Amino acid sequence: MRSAPAAYTFFKIILGILVAFGLIMLASAGVVVGQKTCGSSTCLLVHQILYGLLPGIALFYICSRIKYTTWRKLAFPALLGAIGLLILVFVPGVGFGLKGADRWIDIGPISIQPAEFLKLALILYLAAWFGGRGKQSGSVSTIYALVPFFLVLGFVALLLIKQPDFGTLGIVVLVSVAVYFFSGAKWTHFLILVLSFALIAGSLSVVSPYRFDRIKAFLNPQEDKQGSAYHINQALIAIGSGGVFGLGYGQSKQKASYLPEPVGDSIFAVIVEELGLVGGIFLVALFVLLAMSMFVIAGGISDQFGKLFVLGAASWIVIQAFINIGAITGLMPLTGVPLPLVSYGSSSFVALLVAMGIVSNIAKHA
């Protein structure tokens, strides 16, 4: 094992604490929603354990035992499979939508959100692609990397726009750009990518009435408190009510029918309301420490594929957590993306634990 043993041990400890903390807070945040949706205050927690935690742990263990070089060979088939699942959301009788978005497919008794597994598959593919290209004169070749990069990402973006799922699109783009940057891209190429995607994102926000309303609510949350700005105002009330030490575990008032999505993208507001600023800082620290341990692990890896995958997985967690927390605290427009390993949702939970299992094997064998 070339990665620092201490960093790998620290990685596993922080990951375990983050998963446990997420389940503990979901147990509280899901009380009211659970009673309304399935008649039990614990049903969401039970569902997360049965369909998220248990299969996630099993797959983490399996992936941590599979030689990581196997994933390099499976990267392209995995991407094709993830794209295939993403296309299935548009097939009548298989895919279904909520609140005007087609994002889920039914497979037997469970529902899957393919976009979560697309993030994992895309990181695998990009790590394999850029890792295989190597470095030419200190940077990845434009012809052999940048053009295919645009083509793959562009096709994926079209599918996500069709759903529509702009939150996931933003994460996919940012994580992909991060992997490209870590592969040794020239600064000029990096800036071209950032500016191009920023221009596209701005254009999509303007032409989409729903997204435009969210931007207006972000710029002026006091203008329409009962309309487009209702969500962010209720989140800020929850955060402000928590103070330094919070109202106490299980004592959130906002989760009782006021705060939208208290178990989803708003769970950070519930955490701060119940545990205060201290609880919020603690959770942010867990994300930072997990990412730092992964960056240290990556620093000890000589294999380019392994290094890029670890850096891509770390970027996934950091970027998604930053977007979620930034949006719910009013620092950016609401996006609807879940808080990694904390928000309710088995697809996101399992996909992240699979990624962490692969990181575990890379840390031991790269």
From TrEMBL:
Membrane topology, from the record: Multi-pass membrane protein
GO cellular component: cell division site; plasma membrane
InterPro entries: FtsW (IPR013437), FtsW/RodA (IPR001182)
Compartments reported by the entry: Cell membrane
Positions of transmembrane segments: 44-62, 74-98, 110-130, 142-160, 166-183, 190-210, 275-301, 308-329, 341-363
A single GO BP: cell wall organization
Pathway in which the depicted protein is active: Cell wall biogenesis; peptidoglycan biosynthesis
Enzyme Commission identifier(s): 2.4.99.28
Molecular function per GO: lipid-linked peptidoglycan transporter activity; peptidoglycan glycosyltransferase activity
Protein's UniProt keywords contain Ligase: no
Pfam families assigned to the protein according to its UniProt record, in alphabetical order: FTSW_RODA_SPOVE (PF01098)
Organism superkingdom: Bacteria
Record keywords, A-Z: Cell cycle, Cell division, Cell membrane, Cell shape, Cell wall biogenesis/degradation, Glycosyltransferase, Membrane, Peptidoglycan synthesis, Transferase, Transmembrane, Transmembrane helix
Record's catalysed reaction(s): [GlcNAc-(1->4)-Mur2Ac(oyl-L-Ala-gamma-D-Glu-L-Lys-D-Ala-D-Ala)](n)-di-trans,octa-cis-undecaprenyl diphosphate + beta-D-GlcNAc-(1->4)-Mur2Ac(oyl-L-Ala-gamma-D-Glu-L-Lys-D-Ala-D-Ala)-di-trans,octa-cis-undecaprenyl diphosphate = [GlcNAc-(1->4)-Mur2Ac(oyl-L-Ala-gamma-D-Glu-L-Lys-D-Ala-D-Ala)](n+1)-di-trans,octa-cis-undecaprenyl diphosphate + di-trans,octa-cis-undecaprenyl diphosphate + H(+)
Recorded family membership: Belongs to the SEDS family. FtsW subfamily.
Protein's UniProt name: Probable peptidoglycan glycosyltransferase FtsW
Organism: Candidatus Yanofskybacteria bacterium RIFCSPLOWO2_01_FULL_49_25
